[in-house]
Amino acid sequence: DDIALHETQQPNARILARDFKGVLTVYHVQLPSGKVLETFQPHYATLKAGDPVHVLVDPGHDLAWFPGGEK
């Protein structure tokens, strides 16, 4: 939920897959580096596989940080 996806004329990523889960949609997004991330988006999001998007980290709150994977 900390990742924003925006349709744009200047994309920095591409939607690989969309997995509707009812209350949310999981998008698989490929970055220019080739790495793929999964992001939760609202259930009403309408992006589809192949769509170019701009990916932005936009948490809207402080992010938790766990050094060494500790919780």
Features:
single chain; mainly beta; 5 strands; globular; 71 residues
Order of helices and strands: EEEEE
- Helix fraction by DSSP (H/I, runs of at least 4): under 10%
Please state the CA-atom Rg, rounded to the nearest Å.
13 Å
Mean pLDDT: 86
Record the strand order, biggest sheet: 1-5-2-3-4
Largest sheet: 5 strands, antiparallel
What low-confidence regions span 5 or more consecutive residues with pLDDT below 50? Answer: none
Task: Give the N-terminus to C-terminus distance in angstroms.
Answer: 19 Å
Summarize the structure.
This protein is 0% helix and 46% strand.
What can you tell me about this protein's structure?
- By secondary structure, the chain is mostly beta strands.
- The protein has no helices and five strands.
- The protein has a five-stranded antiparallel beta sheet, with no helix packed on it.
- A hairpin with a 3-residue loop joins strand 2 (13-20) and strand 3 (24-30).
- The chain is globular, with a radius of gyration of 13 Å.
- The chain starts with a strand and ends in a 14-residue tail after the last strand.
- The mean pLDDT is 86.
List the helices and strands and how they pair.
Layout: E1 3-7, E2 13-20, E3 24-30, E4 36-42, E5 52-57
